[in-house]
């Protein structure tokens, strides 16, 4: 579609006005609404330039789309927009450093990938830790230790040094399975738990 000189001037003014609106919105406190409005203005500018085959204006629209998407934190989309804006020309655009803009986007893309990988590793470690954790369970109501007394007669093995030698405490995992035993427990006045399990020794 060819344009008369007067029409071309109107199209240029329309595209530039839309891009200035996008830029003005980026100068305000950013919110989801203002970012949507700014992107919509840049999209309209791009659509207008494309419709009238104004290939000299399209890179400008891509550049401003990149600015909006960058402010939004949408780094991949911003990088793609800046790449399409590489041929931007005209007054006010000659100093645009596309290489720096795309480089910033690539750096943030790498940062986000590394952060996501760290989060996945941390999540996996937490899951593995929960699966393999061993806990001692105590009662909220009963603070006394779970004690297993040796019911064998005192004359089975001769005399024993004291009563503590016949006490045993079970250690349970999160599934309630016995995973160990010990002869003493921490001070139960500061320990709270969910249940008490009693089991006779063999």
From TrEMBL:
Keyword line: Signal
InterPro entries: TPR-like_helical_dom_sf
Chain spans, region Disordered: 146-167
Annotated SUPFAM superfamilies: TPR-like (SSF48452)
Superkingdom as given in the UniProt entry: Eukaryota
Signal peptide range: 1-32
Protein name: Uncharacterized protein
């Amino acid at each position: 579609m060819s344009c008369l000189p007067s029409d071309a001037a109107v199209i240029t003014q329309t595209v530039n006005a839309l891009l200035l609106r996008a830029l003005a919105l980026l100068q305000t406190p950013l919110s989801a609404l203002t970012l949507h409005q700014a992107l919509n203005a840049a999209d309209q500018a791009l659509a207008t330039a494309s419709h009238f085959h104004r290939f000299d204006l399209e890179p400008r629209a891509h550049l401003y789309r990149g600015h909006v998407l960058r402010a939004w934190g949408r780094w991949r989309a911003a990088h793609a927009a800046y790449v399409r804006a590489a041929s931007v020309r005209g007054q006010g655009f000659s100093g645009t450093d596309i290489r720096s803009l795309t480089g910033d986007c690539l750096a943030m893309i790498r940062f986000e990938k590394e952060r996501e990988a760290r989060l996945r590793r941390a999540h996996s470690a937490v899951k593995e830790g929960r699966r393999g954790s061993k806990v001692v369970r105590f009662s909220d109501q009963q603070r006394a230790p779970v004690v297993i007394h040796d019911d064998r007669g005192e004359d089975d093995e001769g005399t024993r040094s004291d009563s503590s030698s016949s006490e045993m405490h079970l250690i349970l995992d999160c599934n309630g399975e016995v995973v160990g035993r010990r002869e003493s427990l921490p001070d139960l006045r500061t320990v709270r738990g969910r249940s008490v399990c009693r089991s006779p020794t063999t």
